[in-house]
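CORE FACILITY INTAKE
Project code: CF-77B
Contact: R.S. (postdoc)
Sample description: multi-component assembly, two entities in total
Requested service: structural model of the whole complex
Turnaround: standard
Below are the sequence entries exactly as provided by the requester. Do not edit them.
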Amino acid sequence: MSTSAAAAEVVITGSDQVIVIGVAVVALIALVIAFVLRAGVLAAGTGTPKMQEISAAVQEGAAAYLARQFRTLGIFVVIVFVLLFALPATTTGERIGRSIAFLFGAAFSASIGYFGMWLATRANVRVAAAANGDGGREKAMQIGFRTGGAVGLATTGLGLLGASIVVLVYVGDAPKVLEGFGFGAAMLAMFMRVGGGIFTKAADVGADLVGKVEQGIPEDDPRNAATIADNVGDNVGDCAGMAADLFESYAVTLVASLILGSAAFGTKGLVFPLIIPTIGVITAIIGIYITKAKPGEPGLVTINRSFYISAAISAGLSAVASFVYLPTNFADLGIDSVRDVSGNPALMAIISVLIGIVLAAVILWLTGYFTGTETKPTKDVAKASLTGAATVVLGGISVGFESAVYTALVIAGAVYGAFLLSTTLIVALFMIALAGCGLLTTVGVIVAMDTFGPVSDNAQGVAEMSGEVSEEGAKILTELDAVGNTTKAITKGIAIATAVLAATALFGSYSDAITGALISAGDAAGLAAGSLSSFVTSVVSPGTLVGMLLGACVVFLFSGLAINAVSRAAGAVVYEVRRQFREIPGIMEGTNKPEYGKVVDIVTRDSLRELATPGLLAVFAPIAVGFGLGVGPLAGYLAGTIATGTLMAVFLANSGGAWDNAKKIVEDGTHGGKGSPAHEATVIGDTVGDPFKDTAGPAINPLLKVMNLVALLIAPAIVALSVGDSASAGIRYGISALAVVIIVTAVVVSKRRESSLHADQPQATA
Amino acid sequence: MSTSAAAAEVVITGSDQVIVIGVAVVALIALVIAFVLRAGVLAAGTGTPKMQEISAAVQEGAAAYLARQFRTLGIFVVIVFVLLFALPATTTGERIGRSIAFLFGAAFSASIGYFGMWLATRANVRVAAAANGDGGREKAMQIGFRTGGAVGLATTGLGLLGASIVVLVYVGDAPKVLEGFGFGAAMLAMFMRVGGGIFTKAADVGADLVGKVEQGIPEDDPRNAATIADNVGDNVGDCAGMAADLFESYAVTLVASLILGSAAFGTKGLVFPLIIPTIGVITAIIGIYITKAKPGEPGLVTINRSFYISAAISAGLSAVASFVYLPTNFADLGIDSVRDVSGNPALMAIISVLIGIVLAAVILWLTGYFTGTETKPTKDVAKASLTGAATVVLGGISVGFESAVYTALVIAGAVYGAFLLSTTLIVALFMIALAGCGLLTTVGVIVAMDTFGPVSDNAQGVAEMSGEVSEEGAKILTELDAVGNTTKAITKGIAIATAVLAATALFGSYSDAITGALISAGDAAGLAAGSLSSFVTSVVSPGTLVGMLLGACVVFLFSGLAINAVSRAAGAVVYEVRRQFREIPGIMEGTNKPEYGKVVDIVTRDSLRELATPGLLAVFAPIAVGFGLGVGPLAGYLAGTIATGTLMAVFLANSGGAWDNAKKIVEDGTHGGKGSPAHEATVIGDTVGDPFKDTAGPAINPLLKVMNLVALLIAPAIVALSVGDSASAGIRYGISALAVVIIVTAVVVSKRRESSLHADQPQATA
């Protein structure tokens, strides 16, 4: 199996060209509709002047944060651009294309994140106003969901547009160029997830520790200097970070499908993976427009219905597309390498796509079951509050472990199911990638669902701070916020599923890259390249096993670093809010306003500083392992990150979601309600869960993709240096040592920033 | 590489025979010294009649639990014995030997556990009496450490005796027979770890929830009906479970070394792995006798000194043994398969052994750093109590993640270092196994250190309950208890390191078993068996990756099940203690005694019921994966369990240790001392950590070994059924389906036992 051999046979002419142009047109239409939805959201009533004032402060803080973040990340992007340009490539065109595509991937990812944040910070006040009588619950839900819809269509539209243009321009070289595109998108998304995640939870935890715990004032109380920062956080973390993350999931899954598709199915394999997500875009538009809250129906039921309807339409249309576009036997594909493969390509393809769609639906159901306010697991966690905080924490951890296992089993089943469709490895790998495309058809609706979370959370914040929302309005907003907690957890489950499918599929490309490099390096060892490549990657080799152990280490280290970063940054918030209470008279009496901007500045500075260590770890760890130990241990390393990362990501997301909603259950009056010991116990659980579910957990998804793509990009260089003379061995170990030094320095520096949360300092009150 | 080919060359005659007999004699001497130490412990003063009464109650409860546990496990042992007998074997002698060895392994493991528990329940009152004036702190420490010494020498003596007898009787077939021995030891140890772990923490958590939280009475208060059960738990969990666990670590590491040693080095490879642990036994005797507490010196310093001195002596003696016994070039080994290997076998061997010894020392240091009361990480966790329980929990989780990463990196470094010693795979694998033997030299002292923990914990319990211990005595016992927390964490780190080294080495045997079976099955596919075996186990194959994901799942599921089991069983304790407070008048006033035995009965029943699910999972999951998906995914599965399991085990052990000692720091008067909000926060952290560090975490070590050995035993059967006709495919999938049904049923049954902790029930007080 070799993509380069197959690539030569790939040409896009006639009807294929028309289809790809059609894909680009649909992508443009999606962008137009996103613009229309945006206009609809902006047209809604904006509430009282006080609400508008608060919303404006949040907008300003969020925009300032993103602007500073992009400046910081710009330096990173330039460095990686240069490094990428220096890496080996088959042709100069490929080299230039890959580097330029990297820039586009990063820029698109950033734009999507910015757009998501921009719209969400404008939607919050409109949802609050609607809930407060300006249209009621139905209108509030519609604004929230259409905000998400605009972001979802922008995500899928941009992803599809980028991919289709690259395919039209580069044709057979498109997969190689798209590696750069995917890498740019994933790298930027990872940084945005980490930075935004630290921001949002540092502000949230810090605000809670001083406000709720020390001063006994409610969440979002305007006397708390950290409240604006807390609301800014929802937008830069859950909106900007999440939108960028799902964009990269989209991009990387497409990249994997196109690489493997062109190798397995030739031209048709390059076009078909574009058709399926195009269907997804169309059904997402339908799903967004049919979402209409019915009176008395729980919000989650409404949203789930839209998901299931659009998934069903996607399944139907994909089946039609498969049988119309793909032949029913391999000989008709017209490429030599798979001429004799048995089976029906059209049937295989549609089964794979269906596996992906069903996978999304099952994860949706599983996550809803484990983290929803109406189901047994979360209720059990809430009930555990009767025996104190320790049992709440243990209960949430159990829910997290258990749901992670079921989710991983379902994902493993999907991978294995697609894999079994063909005994020819390259075809089987393509089927796994197509299952990923099936998942992608749901991304538009998923983004819409996810964005719902921070928008309704923020709407509640704006309402609370303004003090101008009716009891009825407050109740609506609380319900929508709980729905948002579950939809956020669902999105994380889907995102990690795309990571596993894309990474498993990319693994095939990695193997191919090793083999190809071994052939071209003309290895003198006398071994056939193929057998050598399977030997070095044998899982029973101690080298591979060591690589796996290192992979598992990186997932744990990354999670620990992210959680620590939140603790440290939250400490700075606590310090500042206490200072303001002490030094600015009249805050508690409401006669004087705290300096909200000061806290936003501090969190901005700290989260940008803190994102460096986990970010550097993600980029340099595979470089250290690959150049230091070789391609076999690097393969083991990637596998170790996928296996451990999948479980860890779902565990962190779902335990956090369960704790958050267990708190909501108690706040709704169960087990003693607000202010009871049970409430205090669930607040502790929720605080533990904050960095789990919104910082460490969701960042693992782009982490896996970044590391996989880095491995794919450096594999040929490692092989070239491995088979060379002692000078090249020196270069290899030198690169590895440099990467290790960078990682160790980053970890040591971050550890030296003594957690100010733990520093001895005066409390605001005696 | 094929062990069967090499086995033919193995004969034990002349000086080799003398050496193996010498090993057996040293093993017997160790057992005699264990008996002498035991007599010394029993000769110490037994304190006041009240203390004796309490100690007798603990002895009775512990003995009753173990008796019932052995009856339950007896059924399991018989079933597995039959299954083992039915599995394919090369010769009938091997078949019978393997099954009999399984019984011996199980019996030895059980005996060691029983002995550890028996002596510890007698040492507790003697340590309490010594601390209370009958000899003072030095005497108290000596009794505690010599109790451990007796258990440690019994562990190493029995392990060595079993292995040397098998080698003398079976010679070349010894490795195959020893697989059964190791499996028996590991299986029983796993059940004892899980059952004892559930018992100890159910009683502990249950006692704390009603006593400390609801009634506000101190730990070990005689008015609490669960106190005796709590003290029984320390013995059946930390003593019996731990001793059995370290015995199986010993046995399995020896098995791996002997399998690979005979394949790589012939006869000398079968004898040398016996020599190194024999040196360890000798130095352990020295270490135990030189341990003498100096006035004013922290307990941990005293114990660590003994460890370092005996490790240094072991290193020196091992170097001498290597150069005296092993030749300096491979040709002189006299076996054909490695005649042309370059390098110096004696030098390689001593480097490997040193790697193992250094690894033990580094883990000792790392764990002490992360969980000790005098070092920064634990102090930081204690300081986090100033901002509440949530930050304590997050702080402990960070410490756990971080220390797990460093520990895993050190283990990975040791594996890779040993692996790099030779480019010949079988030799490299043997070197990894020898690093394991280096670790083993420290086991005698490690067991002594570990047993120190529960004995001092229990001594404190006996003292507290009797109410007859002076303030000075209580202070001594509290200090010793804190030392015990750290030594327990260290032991867990060492145990998991042996698991990784043994499992990595066993992996080589697994690969060998696949290849051998493929050859003998005469695979008609036309592929060379070797290349096929590396293909099916290639880490980039989706099948292998799915196996890895399943392996990671099992680690998470097992941990979740164990934690849940503790919650459920603790709920039953809470219920019963509340009932007694309600129905037996005068308990709180001290005019009437609670029914301690009732609680012991309940915990005994529940923990034996609860151990079934995780136990069945461990045995049947590899069967389900192996027969269902094949040998490649099974290899991936094992690798996944090792990578994830290592990190998870250390994470759970060290975060639990840090929380426990953070509580101790606060109880010593820091941050407000006992009764302050900071204390309450650290009590919550400690309760979360209880099932982490004493139930789920330590059971992962035997879990990994059980699954590896099951895989090794079933591999030939899987291959035989894989290359057969459709009938054999039917049998294969049938076996897999049956295993899945057993696991699912076990999980469903355990989930249907609604957590009584969460059930609505009347509280003892309004």
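Facility notes:
- Confidence is low (pLDDT under 50) at residues 1-8, 523-535, 756-766 of chain B.
- The longest helix of chain B spans residues 471-520.
Invoice: internal transfer
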